[in-house]
Structure formats: C-alpha cells, structure tokens
C-alpha cells in the first residue's frame, strides 16, 4: 500500500469518527495544537482550549472536505477556540500599530529584507559541561521572555518560527494583514535576539 493510499484510508476512518484513528490523531498533534493555543492564550489556559478544540474537531470530522491539510484545518479550529476564550474574558489580542513601529525596524541591521537574520547570535562551541548548562539556562531565559512578549507578537512568532506555518495561514488564523504579521514577527525576533545578545555578553537573563 502506498503512502497516499494509507493517508486516504486514515482520512476515511477519521471522517467515520473511528476512535482508534482519532486517538492516533490526538497523539500525533496534541503538542502542536498546544503551541497554537499558547500563541493566543496564556499557558495555563491552553490545555483547556485544546481539549475543547478536540471535541469540536471530532464532531466536525465527517464534514472535513480536505480543501486544506487536516493539520491546517485543526490549527484553525484551535485558534478560533482560543480567540473565543479571549472574547469571553473581554480580552482581545492587541495588534501593534504597524506604521508606528515600522520606522524602528528600518534602522535594524540584524535582518535582511526577507525577514531572515543577517547576523545571528555568536556561535557557541559545546565542548564542555559548562557550555551545555549555559545553553540550557539560555533556553529557559528565552522561554521566560517569550511569555512576556505582547500577545500579538508571541502569537505570530510561535506560529511562524516554531510551527513553521505560512504567513497567509497565520493571517487567516489571527485575522490580520500580511504586512502587520511581518511587522509583529520582526519585532518579536528583535526582542528575543536582544535577550540572546544580553545573555551571551553578561551571562544573565
């Protein structure tokens, strides 16, 4: 049986709401759905959002038409559930004013016009246990500062740089323009890169 045939069989089972196939789906994608939820709501709320999304996904599977990948389809359901959670709390994701902050980015020499780093953090040589410990501490520092980013920046950064979602998909999930998404992503990258630079210079978060 080819990969394509296997995928078709699995999709058919999912549309039929086969519990075994659905369990495999949950095992495969639960972690990724948590990343999407955490991009929009706080980590403490993400698990609840994802659990609610799984219920919605199971109920909607018979109607899945395959116009997008099932992963993208599920990401959209989770993002809608997370945004619904914010609305219930009378909160909205606060999108930065692109025109206001764009001037700050134009002066940055860290990034190329396509959004990639022109010069990333200094390379570390992992030749000692001390270096390994330092990398672990740096990771914790980045995660701490990631949680402190404005909701909009964190959302776009996680979806683009962690989940590798296309910008168009992210814009559809979050209801923002492509240009605004690029600005938010750039600002998040600048903030986190400054954290890395500071840590490497001082050894402190």
UniProtKB/TrEMBL annotation:
Pfam families: Sigma70_r2 (PF04542), Sigma70_r4_2 (PF08281). GO terms for biological process: DNA-templated transcription initiation. Residues 25-91 form the RNA polymerase sigma-70 region domain. Coiled coil: none annotated. Residues 140-191 form the RNA polymerase sigma factor 70 region 4 type domain. Keywords: Sigma factor, Transcription, Transcription regulation. It comes from the Bacteria. The keyword Transcription regulation applies. GO terms for molecular function: DNA binding; sigma factor activity. InterPro entries: RNA_pol_sigma-70-like (IPR039425), RNA_pol_sigma-70_dom (IPR014284), RNA_pol_sigma70_r2 (IPR007627), RNA_pol_sigma70_r4_t2 (IPR013249), RNA_pol_sigma_r2 (IPR013325), RNA_pol_sigma_r3/r4-like (IPR013324), WH-like_DNA-bd_sf (IPR036388). Belongs to the sigma-70 factor family. ECF subfamily. This is RNA polymerase sigma-70 factor (ECF subfamily). The lineage of its organism: Bacteria, Pseudomonadati, Pseudomonadota, Gammaproteobacteria, Cellvibrionales.
